[in-house]
Design goal:
It comes from Burhinus bistriatus. It is a multi-pass membrane protein. The chain has about 350 residues and is mainly alpha-helical. It folds into three domains: about 5-130, no CATH class; about 145-245, no CATH class; about 280-355. The chain has eleven helices and eight strands. A two-stranded antiparallel sheet has the order 1-2. The protein has a two-stranded antiparallel ribbon with strand order 3-4. Strands 5-6 form a two-stranded antiparallel sheet. Strand 3 and strand 4 (about 70) form a beta hairpin. The longest helix is centred in the last third of the chain and has 39 residues, at about 280-315.
Length: about 350
Amino acid sequence: WPDTTDDHTLLWLLNHIRLGIPELIVQVRHHKHTRVYAFFVTATYESLLRGADEIGLRKPVKAEFGGGMRSFSCEEDYIYENIENELYFFTSQERQNIIRYWLENLRAKQGESLHNIHFLEGQPIIPELAARGVIQQVFPLHEQRILKRLMKSWVQAVCEAQPLDEICDYFGVKIAMYFAWLGFYTSAMVYPAVFGSILYTFTESDQTSQDICCVVFAIFNVIWSTLFLEEWKRRGAEFAYKWGTLDTPAESIEEPRPQFRGIKRISPVTSAEEFYYPPWKRLLFQCLVSLPVCLACLSFVFLLMLGCFQLQEFVLSIQELPRIIRFLPKIVLAVIVTTCDEVYKKIAYWLNDMGAW
């Protein structure tokens, strides 16, 4: 929580969590150095099992019951591997995912409000409070025991395969899939690197020989990139099957992002109260604001680039200048590009938020 949070806000949400999500255990702690309050949230093993059932968490099945992966069911919990082991049945990422599901499932009742925040009926409370800045951060705590093990087997390991299963158990499938792709890509780059080095070594200095080698290397890259993509499709499918995400059903209708704003209305589809933003207003903003701002930013960068090129030519035309001064235009261009990158990033966030309301 921010250090300016009042007691009424803390007690309001604490009461809602304890009444609305009895599966969670909440501890309130005060950090005397930062002077902020924090809610430490956990759950019992039985609550985690019920949460896994609700979200359809896929878990491995014992061999005598057919093996493979299946959505968890409390009614048939005996068929799953390691169900008797409370410590190791759920991975760190799975426990975090279930608790996050419980937290985001806390919904407001009709006419409910906190200070100047008025909730819609059925609207998730915690994402809205986080988007409004009432809640400063929602994040899982690290497990030092697992981190130390990953530090030895992953970060400090040299010339060893990545412990992808351990990464998946701790950080989740998305992170593990990214590092699986990164490792596969790094290994695959060895082939064009070796082939290119051989071509470079045996290429003659004449133009004809260099042109032939360039064509050969280009053909090799086309073949390599095709094989790389096809092999990664197979490898990625293997990981997805192994980690239980290959045949995951499509997500149901997602909740509107908490930053979305608009006028309240009754949905003609669900007959529930919702925020609505007219499409013509969004289109008007894109044409009158987004497009001119983007064109202005592009024009500004283009003019700056031309100015730096002109400065480069002017500096090079003066022979008396020290050699280090000749690098000044490039340094100026690098500084300008870095500065513009930060400024344009903020502009892009603002346009994205405003244009998508």
